[in-house]
Every structure is written in structure tokens, then in C-alpha cells.
Amino acid sequence: MFGRVYRIEGDDSGSDGSRIAAYASFGGLLMRLKGEAFNLHGFELDSNIYLLIKKVEF
């Protein structure tokens, strides 16, 4: 499944590491990724991203 990054927000809470959130839309299925800016630096607006989901049995 592929989607598109439509928004990137920064969190200026004053902590040591800056945190950002990247929002993606997969044709109506919305996803928010929150984390350190170091880990999410590769996300850009209007870029395509791909999501692989696998069902796991418990």
C-alpha cells in the first residue's frame, strides 16, 4: 500500500531532542508517525511512502 506525506509538524517543548510528527494519507487511511527528528529526517512533503502490513496470529 502506498501513500503520500501531507504534513510535517515540529514540537518545540524545550526538551533536549527535538521531536517531529509526519502525517501520511493512504487513500483515506491516515497515519501519524511521532519521533525524534534524527529518525524522521528523511520524510518530505508530497513524497510517496510505502506501508507493508502483515497479519500475525497470536
TrEMBL record:
Function: DNA-dependent RNA polymerase catalyzes the transcription of DNA into RNA using the four ribonucleoside triphosphates as substrates. Common component of RNA polymerases I, II and III which synthesize ribosomal RNA precursors, mRNA precursors and many functional non-coding RNAs, and small RNAs, such as 5S rRNA and tRNAs, respectively.
Gene Ontology CC: RNA polymerase I complex; RNA polymerase II, core complex; RNA polymerase III complex
Biological process annotations from GO: DNA-templated transcription
Main location, first listed in the record: nucleus
Protein name per UniProt: DNA-directed RNA polymerases I, II, and III subunit RPABC3
Alphabetical UniProt keywords: Nucleus
MF terms (GO), sorted A to Z: DNA-directed RNA polymerase activity
PANTHER family (alphabetical): DNA-DIRECTED RNA POLYMERASES I, II, AND III SUBUNIT RPABC3
Similarity comment: family membership: Belongs to the eukaryotic RPB8 RNA polymerase subunit family.
Localisation: Nucleus
Lineage, highest ranks first: Eukaryota, Metazoa, Ecdysozoa, Nematoda, Chromadorea
